[in-house]
Amino acid sequence: MNKALGATHAPLTKVVKDALREQIVSGHYASGARLVEKRISEDLGVSRMPVREALRELAAEGLVTIEPRRGASVSLLSDGQKHELIEVRATLEALNAKLAARRQDPEQLAELRAVLELGDDMIAAGDMAAIHDRNDAFHEALARAGGNSVLQEIMQSLRDKTSMLFVAEDMEAVRESWKQHADILRAVIAGDGELAALLAARHVYAAGGLPPGS
């Protein structure tokens, strides 16, 4: 794979880090996979220094593990850690959905509708890679609709750590997940905070393969 980075004005370490994070959370690099500096630098068309710095920063976020003599690899999560991450994310997504339903920001709701409609088109086209991006866009737009900047920051960090747990493997799973997005949005638009919270929490548990509230 060659993913040479195009022209950008962002600091190179940040660009490399964002590229690696996307490859990790999308499942390109599986849990436990080795992250070899030389190979990554060649794939991205950069020197090894920004790759090394990016790996260190991702290690600080918990996505990467760096061990002496072995180097970097995608962090492995125990079943208990996965359960805890899903539990916390479900709780925060529920709170945020409730806030979005109370706040009723017209601009943010319009953005959510647009994201949902574009996702419908991508599902119809069977574009798995594009729908992964739209999934992230939906959750980011819903976070903005909640209007709580502290909660947004916490949720973004948690999404980075949990996204690799939620990679859908087939279109049927994608369709079901997207239907759940539509249900959440309908509850938010209706101003039903309790229902929006319930559906948001169920969505996270379902995506993580756990029974609600387990």
From TrEMBL:
**GO MF annotation list:** DNA binding; DNA-binding transcription factor activity
What keywords tag this UniProt record? Answer: DNA-binding, Transcription, Transcription regulation
User: Domain named HTH gntR-type: which ranges?
Assistant: 10-77
Q: Which SUPFAM superfamilies match?
A: GntR ligand-binding domain-like, Winged helix' DNA-binding domain
What the entry lists under SMART domains is as follows: FCD (SM00895), HTH_GNTR (SM00345)
Q: Which InterPro entries does this one have?
A: GntR_C, TF_FadR/GntR_C, Tscrpt_reg_HTH_GntR, WH-like_DNA-bd_sf, WH_DNA-bd_sf
Which Gene3D superfamilies does the annotation name? GntR ligand-binding domain-like (1.20.120.530), Winged helix-like DNA-binding domain superfamily/Winged helix DNA-binding domain (1.10.10.10)
Q: Sorted alphabetically, which PANTHER family does this protein's record hold?
A: GLUCONATE OPERON TRANSCRIPTIONAL REPRESSOR (PTHR43537:SF24), TRANSCRIPTIONAL REGULATOR, GNTR FAMILY (PTHR43537)
What protein name applies here? GntR family transcriptional regulator
| Taxonomic source organism | Mangrovicoccus algicola
Its lineage opens with: Bacteria, Pseudomonadati, Pseudomonadota, Alphaproteobacteria, Rhodobacterales
